[in-house]
């Protein structure tokens, strides 16, 4: 007959926070080992892809890890992926260029006397 295994926590339900594995201890007794939740990698705020260069941890563990593991050395380092940062820079540049072109066209129209 199989050996009975008793729960080590009070919570009896089979939930994601209460996952467990049966392990045989060195004394030959079967015990439940409770398994922690798996970490998920941080995601880009714009496109939702995984951020490369940032370690995947449970939320509370980020407090004990060094800053170099939580971000990459770039603008929006631990928040946005490289492609989205590039798109933001290009968009800002093109908007500024459009403003300059608008200003030039307006000044040319003033110089010609308002005729097209």
Automatic annotation (TrEMBL):
One of its GO terms (cellular component) is ribonucleoprotein complex. One of its GO terms (biological process) is translation. InterPro entries: Ribosomal_eL34, Ribosomal_eL34_C_sf, Ribosomal_eL34_CS. Keywords: Ribonucleoprotein, Ribosomal protein. Belongs to the eukaryotic ribosomal protein eL34 family. Pfam families: Ribosomal_L34e. The keyword Ribosomal protein applies. Gene3D superfamilies: 6.20.340.10, 6.20.370.70. This is Ribosomal protein L34e. PANTHER family: 60S RIBOSOMAL PROTEIN L34. It comes from the Eukaryota. One of its GO terms (molecular function) is structural constituent of ribosome.
């Amino acid at each position: 007959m199989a050996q009975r295994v008793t729960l080590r926590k009070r919570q009896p339900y089979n939930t994601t926070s209460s996952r467990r594995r049966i392990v045989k201890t060195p004394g030959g007794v079967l015990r439940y080992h409770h398994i922690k939740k798996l970490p998920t990698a941080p995601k880009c705020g714009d496109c939702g892809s995984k951020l490369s260069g940032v370690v995947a941890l449970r939320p509370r563990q980020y407090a004990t890890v060094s800053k170099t593991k939580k971000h990459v050395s770039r603008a929006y380092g631990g928040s946005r992926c490289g492609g989205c940062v590039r798109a933001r820079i290009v968009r800002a540049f093109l908007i500024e260029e459009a403003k300059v072109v608008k200003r030039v066209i307006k000044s040319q129209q003033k110089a010609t006397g308002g005729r097209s």
